Amino acid sequence: MAENTVPEIPLNNGVRIPQLGFGVYQIPPAETKAAVLTALEAGYRHIDTAQMYGNEREVGEAVRESGLDRGEVFVTSKLNNDAHDPQVAREATARSIDALGIGPMDLYLVHWPMPAVGDYTETWRAMERLYEDGHARAIGVSNFHIPHLQRLFAETEVVPAVNQIEVHPYLTQEPLRAFNAEHGIATEAWAPIAQGQVLDDPVLVALAAEVGRSVAQVVLRWHIQRDNIVFPKSATASRVAENRDIFDFALSDEQLARIDALNADRRRGPNPDEFNLIPG
Ligand code: NAD
Which residues have any ligand 1 atom within 6 Å of their CB? Predict the structure, then answer.
């Protein structure tokens, strides 16, 4: 494999998404423009932000100042947890689009189902209208479990294009990933390296030595070969480049299985079934 290009995955409406992107969660707004420009210079063409991250404006500035055509960069944002109401959702979306300043979003997600805040099927119907009105080229969900998705299938029209969920070697999410795939929903893996927690795992350290790559690269490569879409976050230019450099080697089935076996159903973030309340 001499090529080191990022593959694109077709979503269920035909829109294509680069399988590797750059996540900007916890990058302070003042540092976001420079971080995104670094990622774009390193060859990333997919940025994952959210209204909750407070840095949509700076993401948009970087895309506009990069010199790239708008169509060359895939930008995702997410509807905030306090916007589970059709009118509030519409207003929140207008704020995101204004902050980004790059026209319609490529992908727009419901960030968390939040059943105690509002009816996420009503929210999803609002997302369907926003999609129809051209505010996003594709719509999807995040942190949805199988029963959440089943309710959407029963009560709404559009099948989400993606489900963005926590996935890494300690939380492989096989049943949910299989359910997504069965319904034509692409799986996006957040915290793909478990926010750094997997980096000193002895099995992964040994595997990395075996293939002559870093642990982060091996774990990201495992995601790619398991068909997950990933967007690792780093504000360090050398790591941004390292995380991009994963398309010129492959893990064997046996090596992939060794990583699968690390699953411990251990989360970094909250369980979507329990994460229901707005603090306060
Ligand atoms: P991550 O798994 O990408 O880990 C990020 C951490 O790993 C950072 O501390 C970074 O410094 C470190 N790191 C990155 N590359 C490294 C390397 N090569 N070597 C050593 N350390 C390295 O975790 P994340 O940022 O939480 O997740 C990625 C993205 O997923 C976020 O930026 C965000 O876009 C998205 N996300 C979504 C949700 C959601 O609810 N939908 C939740 C969390 C994150």
Answer: 23-25, 48, 111, 142-143, 164, 190-196, 199, 216, 231-234, 239, 242-243, 269
